[in-house]
Write a structure and sequence with these properties.
disordered N terminus; Heat shock protein family A (Hsp70) member 12B; ATPase_NBD; 33 strands
Length: 686
């Protein structure tokens, strides 16, 4: 039998077949005192995935934080009345004519790096700073997208402030989360003075469904640093997927809370243009009432009026169009309890509202020169923020049928800085540029035609529509009846019109909740009260580990042959835990057993691999990459002889992994003592 020390193993053995053993480390791989391999166990049949109902701790209140790219906010509800969602206080400041139950995702730190303010307060204070003084302050905005776009995200990843200075991203996110924690707890204390301070709040953080495991873990680490929860009470924090949260909330909506962009009544009639869905579901609802004897069934099962007409098995798409990303998920409604089943893995891309902002910046580069815009952003950062605010206000008024030009104010600092840098004024720059749909107003504004504004939307809007059409073409998604358009960007009349025009011909009903910008936040609160509402999810990737199998000539490549102690092994075999696009139920477990290799060993470390396909055979195949590590921490008492007198190197540690939740979870137990073993999966120290 192979032994770990003489092989220098850092892989693992899965106790499912006598033909498998751990993968040896590559020659010259680093080893530390704490890193370890796993000795082979007595072969036994690997248990099949087992579904186990998740155990939920009880909390007095759920507080959800919707941490968005452009705007953020929190809401909460008490366990005594879970569906009564309390929105956070309206924020001071804000832009005229813009509802501000959320606040901009803007963070301001002092020149020394200390927290100063967040949201409107941060934005306005930064705006009022002297231009020279502002260059020393650290102002961060729309920084959530950096986590999505980072290909090598770690706990040491840096974020760049508007002035070009950098700071650890973890600290930036922790500052923001700490701000929301303090505000939420203060409001809770005022509303419920008798609420105990400790262990009474379940926190929920929203993230895009397309985020990978490292990004989700990063948000959890930031929450730990911010003091939302402790590592010892990790279950107090839930990660909610944004389109899932929206889906959960949409289940609760009544007909008058929805807007059908098609103008169709459910029975096939016509409604007035852009009117709310009327109550023509009466016949279906009456049948449901007779069946259940009481209309209270709808409330008790968590199903709103729109869902009363839907039958078990009906399918719908949620398109979460936010500031940074578009996030698509497909759910099937399950009766009688109104639970949800994911039919296809979450998809989407970087097609959020910031794409329109970037298009405007590119337009400015065409007019004034890319070098000037870069210099202006660095040397006059506060004035650049002013310009983006002015554009945001006009962007919100854009519409497909709007008549008349839109005026965008240029800060005096921009006009003056350009004249000093270039030796001529901005009006001259506009005349000399090849951009003929933007003019100069005598009031000191850029005058942009509506067609020009709509053109800025087109690349982003087209990307969203293409993603939706590609999703609807999937065989798993056939039979979809509804498309819910949610998220802050879904408020845009330009986007609504384009989606309806492109998808209306398919017979798909495009529905927008009236409080579309708060749908995810409210849904996250409901998700925190009942995390089991999404019963089945699809794994986005294939996950597994590397093992040694008995070498079979003709089946295994010769270069994978390893001969030790007279036995032939095939190295680098990819042992799969879960396959990409596989349906995994909430609470379903994949169990494997491991054994410490040495007496006194304190830590078992096992590399995890992933890929986008389900047919990978080896961890060296194209597309397969190391994505994390499973760590089992052994207590000193666990390292001696067990209760049955077995040798210390033969102790069995049984790990149970869950892939059906919003995060990959692991628990472990020492089989000989039945004591829990501290287990974790690290996706950030790859």
């Amino acid at each position: 039998m192979l032994t770990v020390p003489e092989m220098g193993l850092q892989g693992l053995y899965i106790g499912s077949s006598p033909e498998r053993s751990p993968v040896p480390s590559p020659p010259g791989s680093p080893r530390t005192q704490e890193s370890c391999g796993i000795a082979p166990l007595t072969p036994s049949q690997s248990p099949k995935p087992e579904a186990r109902a998740p155990q939920q701790a009880s909390f007095s209140v759920v507080v959800a934080i919707d941490f968005g790219t452009t705007s953020s906010g929190y809401a909460f509800s008490f366990a005594s009345d879970p569906e009564a969602i309390h929105m956070m206080r309206k924020w001071e400041g804000g832009d005229p004519g813009v509802a501000h139950q959320k606040t901009p995702t803007c963070l301001l730190l002092t020149p020394e790096g200390a927290f100063h303010s967040f949201g409107y307060t941060a934005r306005d204070y930064y705006h009022d700073l002297d231009p020279e003084e502002a260059r020393d302050w650290l102002y961060f905005e729309k920084f959530k997208m950096k986590i999505h776009s980072a290909t090598d995200l770690t706990l040491k990843t840096q974020l760049e402030a508007v002035n070009g200075k950098t700071m650890p991203a973890l600290e930036v996110f922790a500052h923001a989360l700490r701000f929301f924690r303090e505000h939420a707890l203060q409001e809770l204390r005022e509303q419920s003075p008798s609420l105990p301070e400790k262990d009474t709040v379940r926190w929920v953080l929203t993230v895009p469904a397309i985020w990978k495991q490292p990004a989700k873990q990063f948000m959890r680490e930031a929450a730990y640093l911010a003091g939302l929860v402790s590592r010892e009470n990790a279950e107090q924090l839930l990660i909610a997927l944004e389109p899932e949260a929206a889906s959960v909330y949409c289940r609760k909506l009544r007909l008058h809370q929805l807007l059908d962009l098609s103008g169709r009544a459910p029975g096939g009639g016509r409604l007035g243009e852009r009117r709310s869905i009327d109550s023509s579901f009466r016949q279906a609802r009456e049948q449901l009432r007779r069946y259940r004897h009481s209309r209270t069934f709808l409330v008790e099962s968590g199903v709103g009026e729109l869902w009363a007409e839907m039958q078990a098995g009906d399918r719908y798409v949620v398109a979460d169009c936010g500031g940074g990303t578009v996030d698509l998920t497909v759910h099937q409604l399950e009766q009688p309890h109104g639970t949800l089943k994911e039919l296809y893995k979450a998809s989407g891309g970087p097609y959020g509202a910031v794409g329109v902002d970037l298009a405007f910046e590119q337009l400015l580069c065409c007019i004034f020169g890319e070098d000037f815009i870069t210099t202006f952003k660095r040397q006059r950062p506060a004035a650049w923020v002013d310009l983006t605010i002015a554009f945001e206000a006009r962007k919100r008024t854009a519409g497909p049928h709007r008549a008349g030009a839109l005026n965008i104010s240029l800060p005096f600092s921009f006009i003056d800085f350009y004249r000093k840098q270039r030796g001529h004024n901005v009006e001259t720059a506009l005349r000399r540029s090849s951009v003929n749909f933007v003019k100069w107003s005598s009031q000191g504004m850029l005058r942009m035609s509506c067609e020009a504004m709509n053109e800025l939307f087109q690349p982003t809007v087209s990307g969203i529509i293409q993603h939706i059409e590609a999703l609807l073409a999937r065989p798993e998604v056939q039979g979809v009846k509804l498309l819910f358009l949610v998220g802050g960007f879904a408020e845009s009349a330009v986007l609504q019109h384009a989606v309806q025009a492109a998808l209306g011909a398919r017979g798909l009903r495009v529905v927008v909740p009236h409080d579309v910008g708060l749908t995810i936040l409210k849904g996250a609160v409901l998700f925190g009260q009942a995390p089991g509402v999404v019963r089945v999810r699809r794994s986005p990737l294939t996950y597994g580990v590397g093992v040694l199998n008995r070498f079979v000539p003709g089946r295994h490549p010769p270069e994978k042959l390893l001969v030790r102690d007279g036995r032939s092994w095939c190295t680098d075999v990819f042992e799969r835990f879960v396959a990409a696009e596989q349906s995994v139920a909430l609470g379903e477990e994949v169990r494997r057993s491991y054994c410490p290799a040495r007496p006194g060993q304190r830590r078992v470390l096992i590399n995890l691999y992933c890929c986008a396909t389900e047919d990978a055979r080896f961890i060296t195949d194209p597309g397969v990459r190391k994505c994390g590590a499973l760590s089992l921490e052994l207590e000193p008492a666990d390292c001696g002889q067990d209760a049955a007198g077995a040798p210390p190197g033969r102790r069995e540690i049984r790990a149970a992994m869950q892939f059906g939740d919003t995060e990959i979870k692991v628990t472990a137990v020492d089989v000989s003592t039945n004591r829990s073993v501290r287990a974790s999966i690290d996706f950030l120290s790859n």
